[in-house]
Amino acid sequence: MNTAGRIVRLAERDRAEVHFFLDGEMRAALAGDTVLTATLASGHALRWSEFGPERRAGFCLMGACQDCWLWQEEGPRLRACSTPVTEGMRLRTTPPESWP
Amino acid sequence: MTETSSPRIVIVGAGPAGIRAAATLVEAGLQPVVIDEGHRAGGQIYRLPPDGFIRTPEQLYGSEAAKARALHELFDRLAKEGRLIHCAASSVIAMHEGRLHVLGESGVQVTSYDRLILATGASDRVAPVPGWQNAGVYSLGAAQIALKAQGVALGRRIVLIGSGPLLTLVGAQLVKAGADVAAVLDTSSWRQQMRGLWGLAARPVVALRGLALRARLGRRYHAGVTLERIEADEQGVAALCWRDAGGRQCHTSCDMIGMGWHLRAETHLADLAGCAFGYDEQWQQWLPKTDEMGRAGNGVYLAGDGLRLLGADGAEIAGRLAAAACLADLGYQAPVASADLRKRARVERFARGLARAFPWPAAMVRALPDEAIVCRCESVSVAAVREGADLGSGEANRVKSLSRVGMGRCQGRYCQLGAVELIAAQAGCAPDAVGRFRGQAPVRPAPIGAFLREG
């Protein structure tokens, strides 16, 4: 099943839907998705590289490369590959402009 | 012995090696602490999906389902009965004088140990390919984790590149699951693969299973390819340019590339623990030194792919051996090791066959263009590493300081071997003469708040 993003769901499709917010926009995902899966189900990348012109979408998926960092609206970063998405989660693809 | 006087044994990693080590200690009446980054035990190879997923072990692990099921059930039973302490979703990020700094959801905790068993596993050994910094390039392990733990493919049209058993396995698993795999490109030629035959014959059933998987790939599989560059548009990967064994130029459209050249031992914690290292010519990487049981000295033991890349079956054996050594050193009755040592010799011969058949692509790395990226974390170019090698007299840590290669947030896990190859080429020496990047704590990035809460 193709999604609007990069991810193709090949199995385990009968899970409850959950909703989260990415850069203020509501997105749908499935319960049990990681933040990486959830985000890439509706987009092709997670964030911009700080050191080059390209976008990034994760690399190792086992918490070793740190390529899949996203920001929570309250400030702290998380590793998208190893954090489960939860209902109502509020995430950003760029660092918050002002730190608490 | 009463519980209060029992030695405190900490195992890092709950893959096949860590689970077998823990079970061996439990059998001797000890209660080990198992610290693991996963939410559930199993490691990467026998990784379990989250609760609520319904595929069976047979669907997830194929021919290895019985082994996966046995390990999961054993660990869950021991944890439930309170015979071991499982610290899930926790990373050991530093160690000092018999104490581990463990980062978990509630911040950093410090825990002591009398004996430490490191079963930290391995990750993909990757080599830079021009354009690999773009969104949509993943490790082969990542493609497999996405499929196993999430039931997804990371792209609509996939090309897999590299060499080694995982290349064929991930390709076959994705095809079976219904993904669109456009090509599986092996940089090892058929002739090179034949050189591993003597070793591979040590485990004929496993070797034949690999060939059967290869057959499932059909015309997608190409041996002896040359990888030229990854093309990208604003969404990420768009195509791979490569040449086949006959030198014919090929251009394959895709939106995802999985890459890996077999495995790289995860040795950061062994390094912080003060283990000695030696360069292994056959594996073409630095590996920690131990005795045949896995003793590294100073109360530290190593097991599994973080010690020698023997795969899951070898890891189970090594886990038992390390625990047996630990028990013997503590004056406990240890299980007899001779049968396991014999089994491991066979697994090791097979693994060396794999290393020979699917080598690290040294010539490809040495020929990289100056503008290619070596360090994905901080976009350090090949030119910067070559310049660093000229200025830093070809020593790995000096070049690291000069160019920042290996200083990014992955801490050199994914660029070290590529960088060392480039430094060696520039300095006109062999990779082992370049040395290895020193490990630094914390071995995973940790938020400052995690340390503040500690105080």
Commentary on this structure:
- The complex is a heterodimer of chains A (100) and B (455).
- Chain A has 100 residues and is mostly beta strands.
- Chain A has one helix and eight strands.
- Chain A is globular and about 40 Å long.
- Chain A starts with 7 loop residues before the first strand and ends in an 8-residue tail after the last strand.
- Chain B folds into three domains: 193 residues, FAD/NAD(P)-binding domain, CATH 3.50.50.60; 136 residues, 3-Layer(bba) Sandwich (FAD/NAD(P)-binding domain), CATH 3.50.50; 67 residues, Orthogonal Bundle (Arc Repressor Mutant, subunit A), CATH 1.10.10.
- Chain B is built from 17 helices and 24 strands.
Number of strands of chain B: 24
- What is the CATH C level class of the largest domain in chain B, in words? Alpha Beta
Q: DSSP helix count of chain A?
A: 1
Query: How would you name the oligomeric state of the polypeptide chains in this document?
Result: heterodimer
Radius of gyration of chain A: 13 Å
Strand content of chain B: 15-25%
Percent strand of chain A:
25-35%
Helix content of chain A: under 10%
Q: CA-to-CA gap between the ends of chain A?
A: 40 Å
Q: Main beta sheet of chain A: strand number and arrangement?
A: 5 strands, mixed
Domain count of chain A: 1
Helix content of chain B: 25-40%
Overall average pLDDT of chain A: 93
Q: What about the largest sheet of chain B?
A: 6 strands, mixed
Q: In angstroms, what is the radius of gyration of chain B?
A: 22 Å
The 3D shape of chain B can be described as: globular
How many domains of chain B? The number is 3
- Widest sheet of chain B: strand order? 3-2-1-7-22-21
